[in-house]
Amino acid sequence: MTFAASSLASPPETARALDLAAAGGRLEADDAAALLAAVGPDLDHLLELAGAMRDAGIEASGRPRVITYSRKVFVPLTTLCRDRCHYCVFVDTPGQLLKKHKPAFMSPGQVLAVVRQGQAMGCKEVLLTLGDRPEDRWPEARAWLDEHGFASTLDYVGHIARLVTAETGLLAHLNPGVMSAEELRMLRPTAPSMGMMLETTSRRLFEEPGQVHFGSPDKDPALRLSVIDAAGQERIPFTTGILVGIGETIRDRAESLVELRAANERHRVDAQGHIQEVIVQNFRAKPRTAMQGAPDAELLEYVAAVAVARLVMGPRMRIQVPPNLSDPAEFDLLVRAGADDWGGVSPLTADHVNPERPWPHLDDLALRTAELGFELRERLTAQPEFVLGADTWIDPGLRPTVERLADPATGLARVAPAAPDTPSTPATPSTPATPAARPTSVRRLAETAASDPLALDDAEWARLLEATGTDLDALTETADAVRRYTVGEAVSLVVNRNLTSSGLRPVATDDPATFTLDDVGAIAADAWNLGATELCAQGLLPDDVDPQGYLDIVRAAKAAAPGIHLHAYRPQDVRDLAERGGLGLDGALAAMRDAGVDTVPGTGVKVLNERVRALIAPADLAIEPWVEGITAAHRAGFRSTSVIFYGHVETAAERIAHLRGLRAIQDETRGFTEFVPIPLPGPAGGVPLVAGRAPIDEHRAMVAVSRLLLSGSIPHVQIPWTRVGREASAVLLQSGGDDLGGTLLDGRVKPEAGIEYGIELPVAVASSIAARLFRPFRVRTTDYREPPAREAGR
């Protein structure tokens, strides 16, 4: 993208500031403000200068054409806070915690359970984020700390950081807010880096009633700058940055960047300042906040801020942009603007500060970075320069751990670090913990599973599936904590419509469940105009309908609604296209991709067991070809759902084998986005594992075990509201579930052409379910991204 055709004009002082920057001059606040106002060709020139400075800087650092990131586990140690920021959804009140059944602080066991899962996924950073000094405002926080023997929240932060490194060999990054020099000194031996956003130097936003920082004592700009200075005095590698779009002026942005540069320069050692990275973060409005109606940061203003941050801070500074807060299509602008670091990205945990913005998959991030001409490389929580300068910047007690994780030549993360010498390395699939070595109460078994899903044997998992009474309560509480501290609090839903492909006919009939290709286009356009982002098509075509009809349905839908996501065709449907169409399995999948299929349903199987299939669903595709089909789809680039249909003739052991089988497929392909435990209705269904156990308890146990056994593998557990009802869905969302599937719009065109016709879950109803649980609600796309903004009716 270039801006040469823009009708806007930059102010005349922008040209002078660009000349100064091009000559390598030092930019002051007036210059930075002028550059922040650049538009059109001047903005192009600004990006060119910033990109060139970044390129020179990373080449001088020995990392030419490298953009870095840190693979992390995000640990929200407490969501209590003494501040009242008007844009924040991270914090809770004690009353909200009670309604969520959520503790005031994560326990050490809960922290280690999440961290160990992250460790198994290759994470090396543990980001400890929390509210500022909650005990100063909330007696409940003070009482928890007193009960557990901690003098302050920061005392507990230090304890957890030490525990994480001692038990797992991972490194903590501390983000606990405002700290004194003494507190920074106390915490330095526990973590190789710390951080706190400056956000802005604007006193108006802090002092004026109604502004975003009014009533938040820790958001005093002078106080925050003093913390950044104190971190420099204590030789702590420090992360800070600005927040763009919270009501600050261009002048505020300029002054904020210049102040950060000054703080960094005051604490240089051998030309290296203590600020290891400057985050330029774009504001994203959050529901249930005072700023929920405010516009998001304007893209080009944000991009200009990234570029000016680069030019003000210089080539040695790492300029970080959070990839989940921008659409992938915007990455090109951010890289052109001089960014060289994506920050922490987690393969396990949500961004608990921005729960509506999922992290990009690391493979996708690497691919997109490569498309932009750079290599994605992993770093530690401390940037490479600070790792290489560990004698100055990192506490002696942490240096052995840093050395184990770091490449000694580059300071980046080792590709394969040595195993940590810790007392409690988690069990691996080949060496499960033995029952004799482990307490066998249901609660302790669930806690063991939360820490390492592969540690339990089949009999122990079966015991969890058959839990009742208080044991079941303990199981669901543990599973819900795993959900909370991994995928986060958000309840999600996709706006979609079903189309049962079995109903395709060459010509119109009187049967309202059938349709023609002309109807397909009208159905897709109608769904799109009603706000749907997904059309789900599945079901075998009749034997007398040309199998090319599978592809024709997709083409007709895409032609009528190009923006709609086609979630289409089970392995059994694909097999039919492959065999009757003469394409073979790989050819059928390639044809589907070419026609416009985006993802595939992982349905068409009840339980991965031939005995069960023969008794319940002999017409289903056999297990081996189903596994072959879904695996081939994943290898062809399609992601899919996964399911179990339970409550008929299967045993607890067969359910566990099914979950293990899905996890094995996921280990190989990483293709499953979600898991849906579906109770089988009708005469064959409703059979409890435990005689006399209430249906809701059958479902609670199934959801909880699914969350625990699949944690770290298949991220989302979807509640099948069409089978259990809305009220039970709310209960199951407290048993480990995080998603409600789709709205299943009937639509106005051929409404009976979709399976489960006649039952819908409007967005407003789904949102109210989440609100009753005091959890945020987000509308998602099929692949759990943010739906793109679009004009009404487009």
Describe, in plain words, how this protein is organized in 3D:
Residues 422-436 have low confidence and may be disordered. It is built from 31 helices and 18 strands. The strands form 4 sheets. Strands 1, 2, 3, 4, 5, 6, 7, 8 and 9 form a 9-stranded parallel sheet that branches. A 3-stranded parallel sheet has the order 17-10-18. The protein has a 3-stranded parallel sheet with strand order 11-12-13. The chain is globular, with a radius of gyration of 27 Å.
Question: Concise description?
Answer:
The chain is of the alpha/beta class.
Basic shape: globular
Largest sheet: 9 strands, parallel
Q: In angstroms, what separates the terminal alpha carbons?
A: 23 Å
Class by alpha and beta content: alpha/beta
Strand content: 5-15%
Oligomerization category of the chains in this entry: single chain
Uncertain stretches of 5 or more adjacent residues? 422-436
Radius of gyration: 27 Å
Notable characteristics:
alpha/beta, globular, about 800 residues
Topology of this structure?
Elements: H1 12-22, H2 29-36, H3 40-60, E1 66-78, H4 94-100, H5 108-120, E2 125-130, H6 139-148, H7 153-168, E3 171-175, H8 181-187, E4 193-195, H9 204-207, H10 221-233, E5 238-244, H11 250-266, E6 275-282, H12 299-313, E7 318-320, H13 331-336, E8 341-345, H14 362-371, E9 375-379, H15 384-388, H16 390-393, H17 399-405, H18 442-451, H19 458-465, H20 469-485, E10 491-494, E11 496-500, H21 517-529, E12 534-538, H22 549-560, E13 565-568, H23 571-580, H24 584-595, H25 610-616, H26 623-635, E14 640-646, H27 652-669, E15 672-679, H28 695-710, E16 716-717, H29 721-724, H30 726-732, E17 739-742, H31 763-772, E18 777-780
Parallel strand pairs: 1-2, 1-8, 1-9, 2-3, 3-4, 4-5, 5-6, 6-7, 10-17, 10-18, 11-12, 12-13, 14-15, 15-16
Helix pairs in contact: 1-2, 1-3, 2-11, 3-12, 5-7, 5-18, 10-11, 11-12, 18-20, 19-27, 20-28, 21-22, 23-24, 23-26
